[in-house]
C-alpha cells in the first residue's frame, strides 16, 4: 500500500519498522502464549509518540490524521500477529478516541493524557451477550444515585478487557432504543467490576474479556457528553474502527502473499518449484489482484474520511471487501503450504486463524452490506 507523499509519514514508517523489528517481532510468540501484550510495550510506544498519533496535542497526542495511523498499522502488522496492533488500536483508536470526541476537559486531562503517555491502558465496552452490532439493544444499565451512577450488567468480547485501566462503556441510562444510551468511563478497579479472560482460537496476543458489573459505582462526572446521547458517539467511533480493520486485513493479506510467493519459489515438487506449475501462478495472481483492489478501495475510504467527507458507505465497502478478501487469501496461501499451514510455527497458519475475526469485529460483513444498501438506495419500498 502506498501512502500519500510526505516526509513525516515516511519518517514515521521507518521509525516504526525499526521498532517492530527490534521490540515486537522477537517477542510475538511469547506474547501469544501469554495471551496478552505486556504493559512495557505500551510504555515504549508512548515514548515514541505512537499511542496518541491521532489524539489532541493539547493532551500529549500527535494531532495527526488517519494516514499516520495507517502507516503505523502497516508496519506493526509486519510482526506477524494481528493481536499486537489490535491491542494498541483498542486502546488508542477505540477507547480513548471516544473520550476525546465527547469528554469533558477534566476527563480528557485524566484519561487522554494518561493514554498518550502510556500510564493507562483503555478498552472499549460496547458488545454484550445479546447485543453486538445492534448497539441500540444493549441492556447494561447505569442508574443515577446522587453524584454516582450504579452500573449493572455485562459486556462480552472486550479487547484489552483484562489489562485495561479504564473501560469506555456504553450503558443504558434511559428508555429502550438508541435514545436511552450513554457512554461512561469506568475505572477498572471499581468495586463491583469482575473481569474474566476468554480463550480464543486466534488473535492470541490480544486479551479478550467478559465483564460483569454488579452494583458498580462510578462517579457521574465520568459521563462522556450528555446523558442519553451516547448512541451517536458510539456510531461515530465505528468508522475509525472499521478503517483500522480494513488496513489490518490488507496488510495481513499482503504479508501472507509474500510468504506464499517465497514458499512457491523454494518448495520443490516433482522436480520443480511450485511456481513452475501454472495453476499456482494463476491462483497467486488472483490473490495479488484482490489485494490491490482492496487496498485501493481502503485508500479511497481513508481519503474521504480524512477530508471530512461523507464516508460511511465507502468505509463499509472497504471493511467488507478487505476482510472477506483476507479470509480468501488465507485459504489460498495455506493451500500452497500444505500440511505446514496447520502448524503453530507457520506464519500463514497463525494468520489464517487470526483472519476469522476480521469479518466480525466492528460490524459483521452482513451489517456492512446492510449499510451499503441503505446509503445507496438499494432498499425496496414497503408494499
Which helices and strands appear, and what pairs or packs with what?
Layout: H1 7-24, H2 28-34, H3 39-47, H4 66-76, H5 83-102, H6 105-117, E1 122-125, E2 141-145, E3 148-159, E4 166-172, E5 181-187, E6 193-197, E7 208-219, E8 223-224, H7 230-266, E9 268-269, E10 272-273, H8 278-306, H9 312-337, H10 347-355, H11 365-375
Parallel strand pairs: 1-4
Antiparallel strand pairs: 2-3, 3-7, 4-5, 5-8, 6-7, 9-10
In short:
The protein contains 11 helices and 10 strands. It has helices at 7-24, 28-34, 39-47, 66-76, 83-102, 105-117, 230-266, 278-306, 312-337, 347-355, 365-375; strands at 122-125, 141-145, 148-159, 166-172, 181-187, 193-197, 208-219, 223-224, 268-269, 272-273.
Describe the model.
Helix 9 (312-337) packs antiparallel against helix 11 (365-375). Strand 4 and strand 5 form a beta hairpin. The protein has helices at residues 7-24, 28-34, 39-47, 66-76, 83-102, 105-117, 230-266, 278-306, 312-337, 347-355, 365-375; strands at residues 122-125, 141-145, 148-159, 166-172, 181-187, 193-197, 208-219, 223-224, 268-269, 272-273. The chain starts with 6 loop residues before the first helix and ends in an 8-residue tail after the last helix. It is built from 11 helices and 10 strands. It folds into 3 domains: 7-121, Acyl-CoA dehydrogenase/oxidase, N-terminal domain (Butyryl-Coa Dehydrogenase, subunit A, domain 1, Orthogonal Bundle), CATH 1.10.540.10; 123-226, Beta Barrel (Butyryl-CoA Dehydrogenase, subunit A, domain 2); 232-375, Butyryl-CoA Dehydrogenase, subunit A, domain 3 (Up-down Bundle), CATH 1.20.140. It has a 4-stranded mixed sheet. A 4-stranded antiparallel sheet has the order 2-3-7-6, with helices on one face. A two-stranded antiparallel sheet has the order 9-10. The model has no long low-confidence stretch (mean pLDDT 96). The longest helix is centred in the middle third of the chain and has 37 residues, at 230-266. By secondary structure, it is an alpha+beta fold.
